[in-house]
Amino acid sequence: MRSANQSQRRRKRQLLFARCSYQKHHLLGPCRRFSSIIYRPAIMSSRTFFVGGNWKMNGDKKSLGDLITTLNTASLHDETEVVCGAPTVYLDFARSNLDARIGVAAQNCYKVAKGAFTGEISPAMIKDCGVEWVILGHSERRHVFGESDELIGQKVAHALESDLGVIACIGEKLEEREAGTTEEVVYAQTQAIADNVKDWSKVVLAYEPVWAIGTGKTASPEQAQEVHEKLREWIRANVSEAVADSVRIIYGGSVTGANCKELGSQNDVDGFLVGGASLKPEFVDIINARA
User: Which HAMAP family does the protein's record reference (predicted)?
Assistant: First the structure.
């Protein structure tokens, strides 16, 4: 009897050691902390994969028409949600010509419905073109046009009140990453967004490290997963458990057909926001990263 009890205790210790070792090396186990956030073992996500194409200030009717034809005739993974961000003057063109299975997004909007705001567009105008989404807080809006966290939050609030889906962008600059303040920066940006969200089902968070946008440099799959996981746990601690489990956090920053599968295999990477590659035929390969 004594021998049997000793054997059982030894077996329990072996199982506990194996479980803790696995969590330590693979799952950022349950006792690892960052900024008072407790990290939990990753589980396979049931969130719908989301791929957005940000065409930025590129294209004309001829080139975008060719791209639209490519997308309309391609075999796209039917469990991936696809949205293309068209330049403002081509929103109606994109919505009228893209297949209905592909959504369209504006690349910006203002925080009010109408008024003397030369050069701006409102969510109401976007919806009048049949468009369902808007990209807000992109690093080029933040760092080229000087948009603050506060303004981006106000835009998010008005877009959601107007029943648009929002792709809300966050991300650190190179000097912020090198200074070790990545989490501080992205948490502050996320807080400004979260303060203005009532219905998270209409929000996709896009983590885009500024140093990787258009530079050819890409965060490694491990770097992307690390930030995405920390963001999800921040949401768990500061918003709710349900939102943390359901909100999609996508990655942007020099995503290509060559690196999309490995990036897309990470537990907390729920898709991509794609820049330059979204104007090329390889965008189809990125859409099908989890096919």
Answer: TIM_B (MF_00147_B)
CA-to-CA distance for 97 and 105, rounded, in angstroms? 14
- CB-based contact 192:152 (threshold 8 Å): yes
**Predicted local confidence at residue 161, as pLDDT:** 98
Tokens representing 47?
A: 């969130």
Query: Does the annotation count 138 as an active-site position?
Result: yes
* Selected catalytic residue, list 81, 138, 176, 233: 138
**pTM greater than the 0.70 cutoff:** yes
Q: Report the pLDDT value the prediction gives residue 209, as an integer from 0 to 100.
A: 93
From the candidates 81, 147, 208, 233, which is the catalytic residue?
A: 208
- Buried/exposed code over 195-217 (b: 16+ C-beta within 10 A; e: otherwise): ebbeebeebbbbbbbbbbbeeee
Nearest by Cα to 243 from 198, 289, 184: 198
Which residues have a Cβ under 8 Å from the Cβ of 265 and sit 6 or more positions away?
221
Active site residue 77: no
